[in-house]
Structure formats: structure tokens, C-alpha cells
């Protein structure tokens, strides 16, 4: 099950579970669409994998399967090229 991390690793912007602009790689590294597109050019700085839109978990399912509250912030890996 996806963790649905709460923020962008680059800019620390909040990304709630219903965010349509959240992007993830296959390891669930999480970024906002702006950082994913402009700074990272669609590739995860951690693993090099493709960044794709994170699915939205239905609100009713969040009750028993809540999103993660653990924030990951690694701005050093997100420098603009």
C-alpha cells in the first residue's frame, strides 16, 4: 500500500492525500508537479526512476488506511540544473 507521503522532498510543499499534483517514483519518493517538471525533469533524484502522478486514495479508505505523516525533505538533491 502506498504511504502517501505528506510533502515534496524538494520544496517541502504540503501534498495532502487528495493532491492531484503529487508525483512519485517506484520507491515512493514524493515531489510536487512543479519540482518534478522544472527541477527534476521527470526523474527521481534518489533512484533515477520516472516520476508519475500519485494515485488518490478515496477519502473513505483513509479512515482505516491513513496517509503517512513522516516528512522527507532533501533539498540538496533537488538543485536546478
TrEMBL record:
InterPro entries: DUF1272 (IPR010696). Pfam families: DUF1272. This is DUF1272 domain-containing protein. It comes from Limnohabitans planktonicus II-D5.
Amino acid at each position: 500500500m502506498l504511504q502517501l507521503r505528506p510533502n515534496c522532498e524538494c520544496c517541502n510543499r504540503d501534498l495532502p492525500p487528495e493532491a492531484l499534483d503529487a508525483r512519485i517514483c517506484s520507491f515512493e519518493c514524493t515531489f510536487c508537479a512543479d519540482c518534478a517538471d522544472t527541477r527534476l525533469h521527470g526523474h527521481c533524484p534518489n533512484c533515477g526512476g520516472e516520476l508519475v502522478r500519485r494515485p488518490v486514495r478515496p477519502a473513505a479508505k483513509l479512515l482505516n488506511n491513513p496517509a503517512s505523516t513522516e516528512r522527507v525533505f532533501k533539498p540538496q538533491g533537488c538543485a536546478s540544473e
